[in-house]
Write a structure and sequence with these properties.
By secondary structure, the chain is an alpha+beta fold. The chain is built from 14 helices and 38 strands.
Length: 731
């Protein structure tokens, strides 16, 4: 790309205003093909002769900019004329805009927007001509006088367009690479379900769905009239607009009208919201037809589907899907609304298996894992956040995304080339854990989040009661096991790491387990291991001795029952809780937890009108009050990881070989769901499983693609080997 264009910037400082880089050119011969290649430090919107180029938004996306930035290519042949004007608007985006809590990371990568572009024309006679960014391009102001992901956007159509001067060379130093991730595009379009006049006498538009994206307006108003929208996820107990949980993110979109009727859409920002407050609105009435919510996320193909006979579980699945949509916006974020929206690794790793069932995320994670590899420290450490806004001390269960995500993506798609590429990242992380602790085979000490947001240490504490050293050591064992499995899949000798895994497990047993249960009295450890999460990890990560498994499972079940049939687990324990029960003969209790409606539970939020998954079990409490504004998202997908249990145990679908070439289907019916009908589009075709009750019998219908072998296991233990075709069983 360097041969075709130079990085350019505005000759004047523009702060948070967007600018337009423009070049006029003429063509003298018939054109065969024309391609525009663009990237930016910031986000860009290209137009050619006044027409929008492509259908993507917020490009070039978010990468570890100090290492690389993606380049997009567009076919613009149909837009060319004899005399042409190429204009590329650039806003601050992720590279220049504000990132992080309380707006403390401004200009993380650079303090100005920059553009790199080249339009290459191939003539009918085979010759080529390129129009590329250089100092002959002109830079103009735009109607966008302020833009930022957290603050929002202001478009002022009363401002006169002004020439800022010729572009100047920019000092951007990064690697330009072809687009590897999914394109970001507009997806679902949603009309309002209600226009409300709140008790505070404010107009609020309700779109009925929490989402990430923006609101498109169609209206006109007198010159100088202002429309100001503020975004929010929920209403308070009195029915008033509420967005104090956004912290310093203003999430304000402002339009200053010029008298013309037009479509008004943010160009360089997105927000997380269900409601918009019309903070300023120059009309006496609100026409809902003027408002449209546009959901924006990475353009991933939908692969999974699910429906059952319990409407609340169906709503939960809906919420899980929309949580993924709102947070798989170029990177896997924690939330799309407050002053954060960051690629937290802990959230990512616990949800990625569910993510790969719902959508085809291979390309999405190919890009993100590359940024993880680029940002991994020399000693193997992995940050809490990828791409990272600053350097952090690693945390167990967060840094373990280095092993969990590559393994799960291989499990879902069977791409050995991708696994091989990221195997060194996995190995370096395990080696880091081996060195990090105060004991050779345990990770003791360090800074860890622990069982984040668990309810067993007081309902408003951030970390649960489970020992952070225990969790760190458990994940040390788990990631080492995944590394060994990955290495064996690649044909490598993994005896060294298999032996390391055995030693870690032995050390955990010696320190934390005693007399068939976890020990609460570890010297020097202020935290507990005798918790639901403590037993979940012991069972699901296969840390306890086989002779103690039944006792551990019984104690886990007892802790659930002693808590009124409810969980107390947080981000670490919850994803594996139902698995730990069903793997040990207590699928009945796992179903009861899934269907529990008192907090903490998945259906508590459903009963309180949630349309996405909440960050806290009690983000909004029974009395209508909210969890602290310091950290309270209503679109936070981590707890949505429960769907991999619904899919893998209730429906019973699990790959026996990576990519589903060989698949085990072992459903666990329960009358409380009525029926389950699910399907997944795999690399080997579409597999569907449907079970339902007919009197006292359960009927099973399966459709198996031709390129797949299914081991079908009935609850009685009877097993059938199935190849391509439709099947019907009853038992």
């Amino acid at each position: 790309m360097a041969a075709f264009g130079k990085w350019i910037r505005s000759p004047q400082a523009t702060d948070l205003a967007a600018v337009s880089f423009e070049k006029a050119f003429s063509l003298t011969k018939p054109v065969k093909k024309a391609e525009l290649r663009v990237t930016a430090m910031g986000v860009y919107v290209p137009t050619l002769n006044g027409a929008r180029v492509g259908d993507s938004v917020l490009m070039p996306g978010w990468t570890a900019y100090e290492h690389r930035v993606q380049l997009q290519t567009y076919d613009v042949t149909a837009l060319l004329k004899k005399n042409n004007r190429l204009a590329i608007g650039v806003g601050v985006g992720w590279a220049v805009g504000i990132k992080g809590k309380n707006l403390h990371h401004h200009n993380r990568y650079t303090d100005h927007t920059s553009l790199l572009a080249a339009l290459t024309v191939t003539y009918a006679d085979g010759s080529e001509e390129t129009v590329a960014t250089d100092t002959t391009w002109q830079v103009y102001t735009t109607a966008v006088t302020m833009n930022d992901f957290y603050l929002g956007e202001t478009q002022d159509y009363t401002k006169r367009r002004r020439l800022l001067g010729a572009a100047v060379r920019s000092d951007v130093k990064t690697r330009v690479v072809p687009q590897t991730g999914e394109w970001i595009r507009e997806q679902d379009v949603i009309k309002p379900v209600a226009v409300l006049k709140t008790p505070k006498n404010e107009w609020v538009v309700d779109f009925g769905q929490n989402l990430a994206g923006y609101v498109r307006l169609h209206l006109g108003g007198s010159k100088g009239a202002r429309v100001v929208l503020h975004h929010g996820e929920v209403l308070d107990a009195d029915g008033n607009f509420y967005n104090e949980n956004y912290r310093a993110a203003e999430s304000r979109v402002t339009y200053v009208l010029d008298g013309r009727e037009r479509d008004l859409t943010p160009l360089f920002t997105f927000q997380g919201f269900r409601y918009v407050r019309l903070t300023e609105y120059p009309f006496e009435t609100v026409d809902p037809d003027a408002f449209t919510a546009v959901a924006v996320h990475s353009d991933m193909a939908r692969t999974g589907d699910f429906v059952c006979g319990n409407p609340k579980i169906n709503q939960l699945y809906h919420n899980i899907l929309w949580g993924q949509k709102g947070n798989y916006l170029d990177i896997p974020t924690d939330c799309p609304q407050r002053d954060e929206r960051l690629g937290w690794t802990g959230d990512t790793q616990v949800f990625c298996r569910t993510g790969a069932i719902n959508f085809d995320v291979e390309r999405f994670f190919t890009k993100w894992m590359e940024d993880m590899a680029l940002e991994q420290g020399e000693n193997g450490e992995v940050n809490w956040i990828i791409p990272h806004p600053d350097k952090q001390e690693p945390s167990a269960a967060w840094g373990d995304a280095a092993c969990v995500v590559p393994y799960e993506i291989w499990r879902a798609y069977g791409n050995k080339k991708l696994l091989k590429k990221h195997f060194p990242v996995m190995k370096r992380w395990v080696d880091y854990m081996h060195r990090a602790g105060d004991a050779e085979f345990l990770w003791l000490g360090g800074t860890h989040f622990g069982d984040w947001l668990a309810m067993d240490n007081g309902e408003d504490n951030l970390s649960g009661a489970t020992s952070k050293d225990y969790i760190a050591s458990a994940y040390f064992a788990y990631s080492t096991a995944l590394l060994a499995k990955a290495g064996r899949a690649l044909g490598r000798d993994m005896r060294e790491y298999e032996a390391l895994h055995d030693r870690v497990v032995a050390a955990i047993r010696a320190r934390y387990f005693k007399d068939g249960r976890t020990d609460m009295t570890v010297d020097g450890d202020e935290w507990k291991t005798e918790t639901q999460t403590g037993y979940v990890l012991a069972l699901h990560f296969e840390l306890c001795d086989e002779k103690d498994r039944a006792a551990f499972a019984a104690r886990l079940a007892a802790l659930v029952e002693e808590n009124g049939g409810r969980m107390t687990t947080g981000f670490v324990g919850t994803p594996y809780l139902l698995h730990a029960l069903s793997e040990n003969g207590r699928t009945d209790l796992a179903y009861s937890l899934l269907l529990q409606e008192k907090t903490p539970s998945w259906l508590y939020a459903v009963n309180h009108g949630a349309t996405t998954v909440w960050e806290h079990w009690n983000s909004q409490k029974e009395d209508g009050s909210f969890w602290s504004t310091s950290m309270n998202s209503f679109n936070h997908y981590a707890y949505g990881a429960v769907f991999d249990w619904i899919f893998g145990v209730a429906a019973g679908i699990a790959p026996l070989t990576a990519g589903y070439a060989k698949t085990r289907v072992a459903p666990h019916p329960d009358r409380r769901l009525g029926f389950v009908k699910t399907a997944i589009e795999t690399r080997h075709g579409a597999l569907s499983v449907y079970w339902y009750y007919r009197g006292e019998r359960v009927v099973y219908e399966l459709t198996v693609p031709a390129d797949m072998t299914v081991e079908f296991v009935l609850p009685s233990g009877k097993t059938h080997t199935l190849t391509g075709g439709k099947y019907l069983f009853g038992e």
